[in-house]
C-alpha cells in the first residue's frame, strides 16, 4: 500500500461497537470497539493498513490523531465504558503514551492489549510484556484487559506478570 493510499485509508477508519456481556450482574454497559475501514460500501478490519500502522511511525501518528478525535467525540456524550484494542507494539510509540496521558475520559476507556508479538521493542529480553509501560498506563487511571487470552503474548505468564496492574 502506498503512503498516500494509507493516509486516505486512515481517513476512512471508524469504530463499530460490540456489546460485552458481563455475567456478574453489572449494571454498567460495556462495548468493545472494533476498528473498521469502509471499502466499497462494506466495513472490514483493515488488516494490511494495520500492519503498516504498526511498522511506520509517521502513519501511526496519523492513526492516533484520527482515533483520538473519534474517541473524544464519542466518550464526551456517553456514560458507557468502551474497550479499545491496543497492540503491544503501540506501547513502544511515544504518541500512543501521549494520547493516553492527555485523553479526557480515562474512566470510560478500558485498554485491551492484543495478543500480537511486537515487531520492535526496547524492554529486557526476558520480559514478555512491557510491565513498566503497562504499570504507567494503569497509574494514568485506565483499566487493563488482555484480548484473546492464551493466544500470542497473552499467556498465563503475562497474566501473572501483569496481575498487580
UniProtKB/TrEMBL annotation:
InterPro entries: EAL_dom, EAL_sf. Residues 1-165 form the EAL domain. SUPFAM superfamilies: EAL domain-like. It holds the Pfam family EAL. This is EAL domain-containing protein.
Amino acid at each position: 500500500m502506498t503512503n498516500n493510499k494509507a493516509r486516505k485509508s486512515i481517513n476512512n477508519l471508524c469504530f463499530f461497537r460490540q456489546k460485552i456481556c458481563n455475567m456478574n450482574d453489572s449494571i454498567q454497559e460495556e462495548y468493545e470497539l472494533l476498528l473498521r475501514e469502509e471499502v466499497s460500501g462494506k466495513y472490514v478490519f483493515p488488516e494490511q493498513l494495520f500492519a503498516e500502522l504498526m511498522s511506520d511511525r509517521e502513519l501511526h501518528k496519523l492513526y492516533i490523531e484520527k482515533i483520538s478525535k473519534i474517541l473524544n467525540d464519542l466518550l464526551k456524550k456517553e456514560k458507557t465504558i468502551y474497550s479499545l484494542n491496543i497492540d503491544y507494539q503501540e506501547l513502544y510509540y511515544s504518541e500512543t503514551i501521549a494520547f493516553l496521558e492527555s485523553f479526557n475520559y480515562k474512566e470510560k476507556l478500558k485498554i485491551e492489549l492484543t495478543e500480537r508479538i511486537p515487531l520492535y521493542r526496547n524492554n529486557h529480553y526476558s520480559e514478555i510484556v512491557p510491565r513498566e509501560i503497562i504499570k504507567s498506563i494503569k497509574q494514568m487511571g485506565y483499566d487493563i484487559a488482555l484480548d484473546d487470552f492464551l493466544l500470542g503474548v497473552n499467556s498465563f505468564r503475562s497474566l501473572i506478570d501483569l496481575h498487580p496492574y
